[in-house]
Every structure is written in C-alpha cells, then in structure tokens.
Specification:
The chain has 191 residues and is α+β, with helices and mostly antiparallel strands. The chain is built from three helices and twelve strands, in the order E-E-E-E-E-E-H-H-H-E-E-E-E-E-E.
C-alpha cells in the first residue's frame, strides 16, 4: 500500500532596497583680515655730554706749585722735624761733652762734625716724577633712545562654512512575493 505524499513548495518573499547617497558639499570661505596701523611713530634721542676730569695737583706739587694751605702744612711739618732734629743733636752733643771730665778729646770731634758741610747730592729729576701723578677720570656720555610706535589694530572676520547635506534616500520595494503550493501524489481517489 502506498501512502499519499504531499509536496509543499514555498517561496520566500524578497525585499529590494535602492539607496541614493548624494555627496556632501562643504565650502569654506576665506577669513577677512583687516590691519590698521598709523605710520607716524615718535623717536626721541637724548645724549648727555661726556666729561673728562684732569687732576694735576700732584704733578704741580712736584714743581713746587702748591696751594698756600698745603705749603704752610708742609712747612709746619718740616719746622717740627727740624726742631726735633736740633733737640736730638743738642742732646747728643751734651752727652759727648759730659765725657770731657774723663779726658776725652770731645771738642775736636764735635768741631769736625759740626764744621764739615754735607756734600750736596746731585741727581736728575723729572717734573712730574711720573705720568701717574696726573689723574684722569672720564665719564662717557649716555645715549637714550625712546620710540613710541602705535600698536596695529588687527581684526579678523571669520566666514562660516557653507555645508550642504542632501538627504539620503532609500526605496524599499517587494522584489519577489511569497508563494506556497501544495501537490498531493499517490492519492487513492477511491477514499
């Protein structure tokens, strides 16, 4: 006995898609820059005079050209020194004269010491003695430079970009319909 068979044939539905994707456009405009500047600045230059100081006091002193106060001071010192030398010499002579009691021949020695003239010293001298007796002091001049320049006025104007974004489109459609079919075989038609 053969059984009946049923053949079932089905077909799925298919959906079709069509997409349209247009390009996006972006356009950027250049920025606008504006610079304003005044070309009239101020420049000032100032200069002080240089100064040269020459001190020849010691050089003139070597030539015996001294101020009255200095001369009197030096003479006073020389006078004091001469008095001290004389006192020393007189005291020394007195000490020698005390030895007369012992029979020493002090008087001829003192006469010889006091009677002889000191030999004069001869030497070459320079006026002034050296170049360092003249003192130089120099103050250089000062130069001051000032400039006033106005700052530039810079302005930027930014341009916004132009952006065009077209919409993407998608079409959805039924490409194939679903279907189902049944077919029976070996069916006993007597039943």
């Amino acid at each position: 006995m053969q059984l009946a068979h049923i053949h079932i044939q089905s077909q799925n539905a298919e959906v079709g898609l069509t997409q349209t994707r247009p390009n996006m456009n972006i356009r950027q405009h250049s920025a606008v820059m504006q610079i304003d500047q005044e070309l009239a600045g101020t420049l000032s230059i100032s200069k002080t005079a240089s100064k040269l100081y020459i001190n020849q006091t010691e050089a003139f002193a070597d030539a015996n050209l001294k101020s009255p106060l200095r001369m009197s001071s030096e003479w006073s010192e020389k006078g004091k020194q001469a008095v001290m030398n004389y006192i020393t010499k007189t005291a020394r002579d007195g000490e020698q004269l005390k030895k007369i009691e012992t029979g020493a021949k002090v008087l001829p020695q003192l006469a010889k010491q006091n009677g002889e003239r000191q030999p004069k010293e001869v030497n070459i001298g320079f006026v002034p003695e050296n170049a360092f007796k003249v003192k130089l002091d120099y103050e250089p001049s000062q130069i001051t430079v000032e400039s006033e320049w106005p700052d530039p006025n810079i302005q930027f104007h930014v341009q916004p970009p132009d952006i065009q974004i077209p919409k993407w489109e998608t079409d959805v459609y039924l490409q194939q319909k679903e279907a189902i079919s049944f077919q029976a075989t070996n069916v006993d038609k007597r039943l």
